[in-house]
Design goal:
By secondary structure, the chain is an alpha+beta fold. The protein contains ten helices and 20 strands. It starts with 6 loop residues before the first strand and ends in a 16-residue tail after the last helix.
Amino acid sequence: MNDEFDIIIVGAGLVGASFALAMKDSGLKLALVESVAPTAPAPEWISRVFAISPGSIEFLGESGVWQQFDAARIAPVRGMHIHGDDGKLSLAFDAHQSGLAELAVIAEVRQMQHSLWQALQRQENLALFCPARCASLRLQEEIAVLRLEDDRELRAPLIVGADGRDSWVRSQAGMDAEPAPYRQMGVIANFETELPHGDAAWEWFRVDGVLAFLPLPGKRISIVWTAFDERAAELMALPPDEFCRQVQEASHSALGELKLLGKPTAFPLRLLHLEHLVKSRVALIGDAAHNVHPLAGQGVNLGFQDARELAKVLKDRGPQPDCGDFFLLRRYERARKADILAMQLVTDGLQKLFNNRNPALKLARNLGLSLVGSLPWLKNGLAQHAVGRHLIQSRTSLFSGS
């Protein structure tokens, strides 16, 4: 095999795989390096799901992969119920009333990864290196050289880092920044519910964090409980019956009795803001490029839009033969920086607002819910923000462990 490529992509998660698929008709020769191939979906539901915005669905549909997802394993979100932390005020969103087919679609990560992987294996302009681990990266004036642990060297004008929040490419390229931990965990789990969810998401602001329900097919939901580390550790240590009881109590039994499906899991939350997403020979996408609080459930959607924009820039580069040219890559960075920064500012600001016990702030945020509920034009506008039609998604976007 010729180890000279036009682009080397490190990381075949959702974002890296979607970028590779978006480049299938580019006329460029691609290499994709991944340490572990995705496993096939199993009958049971895993706890990790994502709220996929209509914009991301459109992007995945352009490469033909969204159409391959099992419709029985995805669920539309057509309504939202948000409850303030005063126990009185609430806010409801309805997709139909806002002129939308749906606010988002809840999809299982494992199914998406498997479908993407199958499509990658059929892609003619792509060489898959899996299982393979990176050993070193040399950025030269006109080429990037990636050495794998088996001593094989891959060479390309451009390396795309799509290798997640602890990105090896980002570190090797000297683009790292110190993340700001929130000292919170996202506790996620799946439940079977006594009552139907009606294709709606639910959310409760509480003194011990924010609890969100996301609809799954049938009488099933996925929950995300963002709580400070100490409270999250308490929740993870509970016996299954007590965990069910506390989730049911925190949700005021909105969906009746809950039955836990599988084991809860938890992941730490942090903010990562990079000054630059690119340098000569390197571009970062997805969690390698940014980390946001999952308050708005938009982390993976930001990543899909990174992949979409980088693919567009590279395919529309005109006579420029060098995919790793700094000024070409800057077009991608300029196109994405405002969107990423806006989402980081919104989610970070809201995290501070809704995790603050100051009585004045509590009054302000609950009055805000009341104001939105009393103004249909504002509520409908926020619902359209939530589906990703604008650059700045509002707090009313879907929540998930992204």
